[in-house]
Amino acid sequence: MAENNKKILEMANAAITKGDNEGFLACCTDDTEWTFIGDKTLKGKDAVRRYMATAYKEPPKFMVANLIAEGDFVTALGNITMKDEDGRETQYEYCDVWRFRDGKMAELKAFVIRLQAAN
């Protein structure tokens, strides 16, 4: 099960990098819940869809350093580059902890840190 969940997450992330938000959302449960620690919580696929429409106006670029799977959980560690509100490319480091239910992503706890620009 854990290896299958890793493959599902890899497939979902590949969809995002192609700008296929609906392909990504097909991997989520209807009641998926995303918590960005210290920021906000999105409840349900429609809330995630609205978030993705604004946050991912251009597909983000992922570099996954590690995927760790056990039971119903997959943890992804890596970097993501995406445009900020002003259209500038911004880099983040992240640790996403996904909980799967019935072969779909049901919950995300995202720990995201914006990297400071080099001077």
UniProtKB/TrEMBL annotation:
Top-level taxonomic group: Bacteria
Gene Ontology molecular function, alphabetical: isomerase activity
The UniProt record lists the keyword Cell inner membrane: no
Keyword terms of this UniProt record: Isomerase
SUPFAM superfamilies: NTF2-like
Leader sequence residues: none
Gene3D superfamilies xref list: 3.10.450.50
Domain SnoaL-like: 13-107
Keyword Metal-binding (UniProt): no
Protein name: Ketosteroid isomerase
Organism, scientific name: Niastella populi
